Automatic annotation (TrEMBL):
<dbReference type="InterPro" id="IPR016772">
    <property type="entry name" value="UCP020408"/>
</dbReference>
<feature type="coiled-coil region">
    <location>
        <begin position="181"/>
        <end position="222"/>
    </location>
</feature>
<comment type="similarity">
    <text>Belongs to the UPF0751 family.</text>
</comment>
<dbReference type="Pfam" id="PF10087">
    <property type="entry name" value="DUF2325"/>
</dbReference>
<protein>
    <submittedName>
        <fullName>Peptidase</fullName>
    </submittedName>
</protein>
<feature type="region of interest" description="Disordered">
    <location>
        <begin position="1"/>
        <end position="23"/>
    </location>
</feature>
<feature type="compositionally biased region" description="Polar residues">
    <location>
        <begin position="12"/>
        <end position="22"/>
    </location>
</feature>
<feature type="region of interest" description="Disordered">
    <location>
        <begin position="430"/>
        <end position="459"/>
    </location>
</feature>
<keyword id="KW-0175">Coiled coil</keyword>
<feature type="compositionally biased region" description="Basic and acidic residues">
    <location>
        <begin position="431"/>
        <end position="441"/>
    </location>
</feature>
Amino acid sequence: MQSVPPFRLARTPSSESGSSTGAYKGLSADACCAPSEAQLRSANRRARLVDLDSHLHCSIIGTCLSTNELRKLVPKFTDLDKQHASDLEIHHAAVELAIDGGPGAKALQKALDTRYSGAVRRFEVAKSPEALLALWKEALKSGDIPPAYWALMTHPQAIMSVRQVAFGDLHMLSHLVGAANRADIRRLVALEEENAALKDKIERQQNKLHEQSRERDATIRELTEQLAELSAKAQRAPDVSEGSLEAEVQALREALVARDEKLAIHTSRREAAEQRAISEQNYARTLSARLDDTIATLNIVQAECSALERAVLAQGDDAGSRGADLDNLAGKRVVYVGGRPGSNAALRQLVESAGGDFVVHDGGIEDRKGMFAAALPRADIVVFPVDCIDHDSMNLLKRVCDRHQVDYHPVRTASVASFMELMARLGRTAARKDSRSDSRNDFQTASQPPASRFCLKHG
């Protein structure tokens, strides 16, 4: 199987930027001269699903439509069974419908347009391939991939190089996310399966206890009926000899003793089963708590992977600009206490590339703990990983920061991902504060009259 994309990747997004004007054949070269309405309708028409390259259908359907949506839609146009068909068969059938371009393709087109109408309207402001790529990069940073992917692929300005860039970004993003979350997902699935098995076991034990209780009640009723029947016989036959009555009473007593022993056995078994059920319930609650902790850890790891991915995408940008998560470090002094030499070197490079000053203190292994009092008052922010610092150094660090009113932030691990996730949270907090002060300026800008469309050449 080929490992290359289904088409040749463009070298630069701007190589075909001029080709976006090719749709306006026959139009005037002057930018102020507006084309006719017929030409505008032809040039600004969004691409349909059937108009796209057949190699793009797999990525569009797999990214923008969920399996449940496809399972409801595809069987209407194929002979697949909605209940028994596998997810892969449903996906392949949907791709074939998109390639054929029949009623199935129209239904897929309608479902995508209906679901992502907001994204399509948001991308309509892009009037050039460069502006379209800028909107795509913003969607990558925010993680809102499916709506942006569909709006970009069908946009009138989506030339071949733009679609190639979006396809490549989506392809590499699937590798990064899959590699980061595969181990956590396996553990989560194993815990869920174990929890479901324990629930089934408890339910079976409860059913068995109810059955044993019904058997015991039936045995008691049977003995009561036999005793009543024998009492009635004794009253109807007064001429029965005394010896036979004693023998019958003795037999009844023996039968009653046997029934009592059987009842005691059932009672002991029921109590043992109840104890086992209680222990299984406690174990299930312990597993549920572990599952909650695992899910919380998985959410933190996903946030760290997202922050690290944004930093990697920002480092790979053509302009070489740093990530927006590190913009708030420009001109600030960051003191990092603890950590590992390898990750500390990478963090120093990131902070210094953002225009900040990065100072490392090993927490007292080689550097003296007394240097906290000299290093921290000049710091703007103090960061320490909780897995690579001892408790005494951490407590001393907190007291010094509180004394000098310096912000300190613990991170989960000494990795670059944990540091980038902290910077992303701090950046979002600063952005929310700045948005309040910028709202008044935005209102004044919006109230200004639009620029004049008067043409110096044509009037």
